[in-house]
């Protein structure tokens, strides 16, 4: 139960790098993984380029428990994720009979052209991620989970694959509004972080309702007792700051 | 003039990886770079961890013309970007006299504590990125540009640093609404992409006003003639598809 499960995300797509499309998947997956006790450690965004995809995939899959990729599994020439994944794993890739059979139910003979059949190309040995509402399936091969780039489809795929993943001890967190400027609490906060090595204390400045600089302190730990101790420490520190001096 | 200028982005912050904060900087910088003729090739997001920052920074700065980092330059213990950058470049880091002098004008003696002075720590040899409205400066060292994580400040810093960057021949692009499903045009589109190797043709499915599957085709090239040729090709292809058969 005390195993730490880690993950990386690989976002594939020229449209993100050109700024044409604003990515919404990183934030969604990040929050999702936190909620199921998986630590997201790294994200990479690369172009629709086989060498770049293979390199990033290999770096991430050897380093983390899971890798989630998004994008590049559609029917057009710029959708090369499945081929890149097969290449990274050194396995073959072909039209998956189960996917082709489903496509035959859905599409007429004229519609089932080479482009659409491309979405049925799945690396050998991969497990499909599909449902009645998902047209082109995602898949899982080894520790790599290949998801669609369209947010609604990606999210449906996450719901299918998540129950099958190993999950770790969930990271607990508590957010405390400091009502103080970050620069005023940085010193005591550093001492506090040192005194609570089993908790992670993050400091996030923001402008409050009155446009005044304010700070959220976020305390995180897998151990509820250590979380409570650190939160208590933060509250005492803030109380001491606000007391008349 | 024909030099290709490339870039990587390094986003630094536990809050992005935990999903607590949704990144808005990648999309902004991506669009900004496209507009000034710099090709964004890769993005990485890493935790507030010195080893992770140094490793990603070294990978990106040796590969691309420029690296833009965001986050981790505030006054608290989890702000370690400047130190990590100094370490990656193998240079010292100290309180920058010009920044300290500006802080003395802005802060009282009591306010100018160790935490705030931390924001004046700049790697040796770096050039400051600052203005009257920016409290803690960003900096540029070698080909690495270190920006704030708060979007409004990051954006002000981009405006200061951008005019000093080498810029390449701008990537031109034209977006064409296909009024067709991606699966119906994938075949001819692949042939078209092959016939126009100096243009990049991207295909992006979306649901239109009537909730019908539709597709945007985005053609990109640095050469206006080649862009026009490829766009003409796309329009002819779409016209042929829509003609009665």
TrEMBL record, chains A, B:
<dbReference type="InterPro" id="IPR050101">
    <property type="entry name" value="CinA"/>
</dbReference>
<dbReference type="InterPro" id="IPR056596">
    <property type="entry name" value="FLAD1_M"/>
</dbReference>
<protein>
    <submittedName>
        <fullName>Molybdenum cofactor synthesis domain-containing protein</fullName>
    </submittedName>
</protein>
<dbReference type="InterPro" id="IPR001453">
    <property type="entry name" value="MoaB/Mog_dom"/>
</dbReference>
<dbReference type="Pfam" id="PF24102">
    <property type="entry name" value="FLAD1_M"/>
</dbReference>
<feature type="domain" description="MoaB/Mog">
    <location>
        <begin position="8"/>
        <end position="168"/>
    </location>
</feature>
<dbReference type="Pfam" id="PF00994">
    <property type="entry name" value="MoCF_biosynth"/>
</dbReference>
<dbReference type="InterPro" id="IPR036425">
    <property type="entry name" value="MoaB/Mog-like_dom_sf"/>
</dbReference>
């Amino acid at each position: 139960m005390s195993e730490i499960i880690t993950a990386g995300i690989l976002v594939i797509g020229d449209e993100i790098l050109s700024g044409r499309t604003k990515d919404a998947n990183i934030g969604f997956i990040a929050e999702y993984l936190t909620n199921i006790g998986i630590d997201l450690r790294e994200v990479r965004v690369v172009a629709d380029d086989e060498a770049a995809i293979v390199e990033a995939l290999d770096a991430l899959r050897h380093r983390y428990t899971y890798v989630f990729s998004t994008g590049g599994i559609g029917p057009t020439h710029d959708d090369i994720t499945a081929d890149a994944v097969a290449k990274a794993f050194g396995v073959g890739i072909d039209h998956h009979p189960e996917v082709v059979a489903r496509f035959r139910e859905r599409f007429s003979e004229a519609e089932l052209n080479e482009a659409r059949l491309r979405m049925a190309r799945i690396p050998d040995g991969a497990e499909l991620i599909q449902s009645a509402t998902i047209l082109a399936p995602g898949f899982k091969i080894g520790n790599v989970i290949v998801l669609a780039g369209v947010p609604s489809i990606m999210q449906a795929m996450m719901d299918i694959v998540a129950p099958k993943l190993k999950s770790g001890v969930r990271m607990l967190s508590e957010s405390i509004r400091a009502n103080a400027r970050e620069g005023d609490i940085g010193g005591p906060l550093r001492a506090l972080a040192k005194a609570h090595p089993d908790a992670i204390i993050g400091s996030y400045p923001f402008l409050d309702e009155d446009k005044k600089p304010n700070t959220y302190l976020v305390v995180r730990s897998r151990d509820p007792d250590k979380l409570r101790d650190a939160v208590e420490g933060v509250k005492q520190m803030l109380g001491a700051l606000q007391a008349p001096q």
